[in-house]
Specification:
Largest sheet of chain B: 6 strands, antiparallel
Helix content of chain A: 10-25%
Strand content of chain B: 25-35%
Shape of chain B: globular
Largest sheet of chain A: 6 strands, mixed
Number of strands of chain A: 20
Low-confidence stretches of chain B: none
Strand content of chain A: 25-35%
Structural class of chain B: alpha+beta
Low-confidence stretches of chain A: none
Mean pLDDT of chain A: 97
Oligomer: heterodimer
Order of helices and strands of chain A: EHEEHEEHEEEHEEHEEEHEHHEEEEEE
Number of strands of chain B: 9
Mean pLDDT of chain B: 96
Largest interface: A-B, 15 and 12 residues
Shape of chain A: globular
Order of helices and strands of chain B: EEEHEEEEEHHEH
Radius of gyration of chain B: 13 Å
Helix content of chain B: 10-25%
């Protein structure tokens, strides 16, 4: 089991540690609900160093990215980020990822920790462009600073003014350390992700500087538990729950990143056909005011008939209502329609809603 | 880890406080810590009785759901309705205001098979 360079800090803070994607990661420090709320109201810091950073370098770097991802990376300029996905030829999703354009000949692809090795192999296998594909995941630490006060905190210790737009990044020094500062995140809040190299000393220096700068804002460490509930309130997909090799991007509601007009990419023809044929099922958001806790794998029913299954669910700490994402047969997907969570044999009434569950 | 001396325990981390033939039941400090934030206590509101070793309801925590097993057989006298609005009492005060169910114990000899505080502590490896 690997440890991130912040492990000794997590231990000292008394975090509950779980094995996740080959890493020992903090799932919570105090309470998932309290950590969730601090991100919505002020600012929290997540160690997400388990994520993968894979660099694509070479004259045809853009061609490679265009071939392997479904979004149109040609629209990116230097310093921009794009949410995208890689698909298998049958349309199943290899992974969802962030594409960073450093320059025309260099891209950074940020992938899910649990898929890192699979993704790296997939990229190598599909490299007919002569690019260098380098997994630098072990070199990079990654902290996500998220919440309405995140700018106030990061700006204090950054050598540049933090005038980044959403999904832009720049190179800067934070706490005196060179890093990529990216205005991205998985919470729906204003937030920054900090990618930097170095050992434990550098990691601890950045962590301590953030907590010193955030003292006045009640900055708190936040674990993977709240990361999951925060992303679900926004309806962001989680690989392994809501999307995987058996789902395609269109039925997952990721049509907006699937650029079927792009000249060529893996799975384009299959996805075009899926769209023409009409989707058989869709990933939809549901909400219930009942005392119920929808969870991954539970069935969904309409008039006593199973019409789908839940892929992610929780009780929203902000709404105090049960929220869920699930795949449902297309004929039952209409917003406003009634649907039931099937929880231990009981049908719990819910209604199909729209995203995000929590509006900012 | 808080393990009061005056209670009886199950291997499944429930506790019973015995007063005459009345048993008040909850989950242990260890159990609430493992579960994390508790959001619902799910017991049928019309539950009449519980049977030793059988599930009488579930606890929904943010990360997981867990059955609660009856430490004794008995007629249900009361449910802690305060938990409907404040389930987190089970986290913050598991042995007192976070109690879950109160029963009339059918057979007091069932208590002999429960663990005392020392034995429960030993089971936790403390």
């Amino acid at each position: 089991m690997k440890k991130t360079k912040f492990y000794s800090i997590h231990e000292k803070l008394g975090a509950k540690i779980v094995d996740f994607a080959g890493y020992q990661m903090p799932v919570q420090y105090s309470s998932i609900i309290a950590e969730h709320k601090v991100v919505r109201t002020s600012v929290g810091v997540f160690d997400v160093s388990h994520m993968g950073e894979i660099f694509i370098r070479g004259d045809r770097a853009l061609d490679f990215v265009q071939h392997i991802t479904v979004n149109d990376a040609a629209v990116l300029t230097n310093g921009r980020v794009q949410y995208s996905a890689m698909c298998y030829p049958d349309g199943g999703i290899v992974d969802d990822l962030l594409v960073y354009r450093i320059n025309e000949k260099e891209f950074m692809l940020v992938v899910n920790a649990s898929n890192k090795n699979k993704d790296f192999a997939w990229m190598k296998e599909n490299n007919q462009f002569g690019v260098d594909i380098i997994d630098e995941s072990d070199d990079y630490s990654l902290l996500a600073v998220q919440g309405p006060n995140s700018k106030n905190v990061v700006e204090k210790i950054c050598d540049k003014q933090l005038d980044l737009e959403y999904y832009y990044f720049f190179f800067a020094k934070v706490a005196g350390i060179d890093m990529i500062v990216s205005r991205t995140g998985y919470t729906g809040e204003l937030g920054y992700e900090l990618y930097f190299k170095g050992g434990e000393a550098e990691a601890i220096k950045v962590w301590n500087a953030l907590f010193e700068a955030g003292k006045d804002f009640d900055i708190q460490p936040v674990g993977l538990g709240a990361r999951d509930s925060l992303r679900l309130e926004m309806g962001f997909c989680l690989y392994g729950n809501d999307i995987d090799q058996t789902t395609n991007t269109l039925e997952a509601g990721l049509g907006w990143i699937t650029k079927l007009k792009k000249a060529e990419f893996i799975a384009k023809d299959v996805l075009l056909k899926a769209k023409e044929d009409g989707l058989k099922r869709k990933l939809i958001p549901m909400v219930s005011g009942e005392k119920a806790f929808p969870r991954h794998g539970y069935d969904l029913s309409v008039d006593g008939k199973i019409v789908g299954h839940i892929t992610s669910g929780t009780v929203s700490p902000i709404l105090d209502r049960a929220i869920a994402l699930g795949y449902v047969d297309s004929q039952y997907c209409k917003e406003g329609n009634k649907i039931n969570f099937v929880i231990r044999g009981k049908e719990i009434p819910a209604v199909i809603t729209k995203l995000p569950f929590v509006k900012n | 880890m808080n393990i009061p001396e005056n209670l009886k325990y199950t291997k499944d981390h429930e506790w019973v406080k015995v007063e005459g033939n009345i048993g008040t039941i909850g989950i242990t400090d260890f159990a609430q810590g493992e579960l994390g934030d508790i959001v619902y206590i799910d017991i049928a509101p019309d539950i009449a009785g519980i049977t030793i070793g059988e599930s009488f309801g579930t606890i929904e925590a943010v990360k997981t759901v867990s059955d609660m097993y009856a430490p004794v057989t008995g007629k249900v006298l009361e449910l802690n309705t305060k938990l409907n609005d404040e389930p987190q009492l089970v986290n913050t005060d598991p042995y007192s205001s976070g109690w879950i169910i109160k029963v009339e114990i059918a057979d007091l000899s069932q208590l002999d098979n429960l663990l005392n505080a020392a034995a429960y502590k030993a089971q936790l490896g403390q």
